[in-house]
Amino acid sequence: ELANRMAERVGEVVKSLMKMGMMVTANQTIDADTAELIIEEFGHKIVRVSDSDVEDVIATIVDDEVDLVSRPPVITVMGHVDHGKTSLLDAIRKSKVVAGEAGGITQHIGAYQVTAEDGSLMSFLDTPGHAAFTSMRSRGAQVTDIVILVVAADDAVMPQTIEAIHHAKAAGVPMIVAINKIDRPDADPDKVRVALLQHEVIVEKMSGDVQDVEVSAINGTGLDDLLEAISLQAEILDLKANPKRSATGAVIEAQLDVGRGPVATVLVQNGTLRQGDIFVVGEQWGRVRALMDDKGDRIKEAGPSVPVEVLGLNGTPEAGDVLNVVETEAQAREIADYRAHAAKEQRAAVGAATTLEQLMAKAKDDKSVSELPILVKTDVQGSAEAIVQAMEKIGNDEVRVRVLHSGVGAITESDIGLAEASGAPVIGFNVRANASARNSANQKGVEIRYYSVIYDLVDDVKAAASGLLSAEI
Ligand code: GDP
């Protein structure tokens, strides 16, 4: 690879390395310092490209306090299937589209912006559910500022409601509870509020600090209250960005369009993205040929929290990929190449897994790790509770076990997604992983451990936790 990049013969490079006392073969990996010596010896110019270079490009831009302005919040809707996530997103969008504007038809680009009664802007991610949320997070993009937890008033708290709560908590994103289907005759919003207590979501009406709003996605009741709650939460979060800098963003959706080539919807997170900007996004790069807003209109630039469709990519990125505007095309191409190469190597490396043992090793390198995150799935609710209690007893001031999520039923793909995003192993107690979860775990290198005796589980986790502990001393 090095020889290739220098346009020298492989044999010559190997020979030089041997002269330096390194007995290597053509396919062996050498460290960067050695590579530098070789490059110098061959009289070439050294251009180090790594992720840290990308960071450097970004890090050189220090946002001046005076340039920071408030930015709209970005909202994701989560909750159990059929509780009305899609209906709610549609209702909000429709109620805020000015009649006649672009024929009242909005385009689906994976996200949209609305203006609340008080004039404040907010951006909604149009892919409800936590699969999208975690897959983005596991790729390093934390785009959501606020989670709307939708719970149907005629159904109460369900397994995916609980999952959503755990996803939001694991990401440290504040929630607003939307108690939906309030129009139903059998709606019982207080039952929802009480049920949420069990999952440590204490809503305002129960004297907690999580806002709760009764809504109906069908007849529009409470939508303005919900937007008001969002405004309030956004104010508390005091979200800021610098529109003057070059843009960074995250890919919400991307696909290969027959007519237009690769198209990505990007949520600008900081800075302003402009037509003509050169950028790198995940393993792809490009130059912004055109920008389209959520109404399908061509725009020249997009500022913080604005979702835009970007044309001009050389390939299709993945949801969650981070976009950075860079100075030159050469830089963009080099970084994209480097990442593609690094990703290939990583895929090839066997067992990049998150095991209990690896968590311990990581703790030894990184002294700040003092929490052992795990996911627990069990056959019955009783054992889930018993395990969570037993886990909480393990550890002390320095180390503790954190059960990110516990639930009843088989281990699913969604569990694996959360585990990957949080670097946690998944514990199956008297339950197995379904086929798609097993595949996904293999691909993502997430460890699944099966137990049928609580003591065995406690012993293993204790051992892992004490590994963390001794590493700290
Ligand atoms: P999702 O799976 O969470 O996205 O749920 P959907 O938005 O697809 O809604 C599931 C079902 O509930 C659909 O039949 C909706 O028409 C219905 N629904 C959603 N919101 C409401 C509501 O506020 N009131 C009533 N009565 N039905 C609703």
From TrEMBL:
GTP binds at residues 79-86, 126-130, 180-183. Keywords: Cytoplasm, GTP-binding, Initiation factor, Nucleotide-binding, Protein biosynthesis. Its main location: cytoplasm. Residues 70-238 form the Tr-type G domain. It is found in: Cytoplasm. GO terms for cellular component: cytosol. It comes from the Bacteria. One of the essential components for the initiation of protein synthesis. Protects formylmethionyl-tRNA from spontaneous hydrolysis and promotes its binding to the 30S ribosomal subunits. Also involved in the hydrolysis of GTP during the formation of the 70S ribosomal complex. This is Translation initiation factor IF-2. It comes from Falsihalocynthiibacter arcticus. The gene is infB.
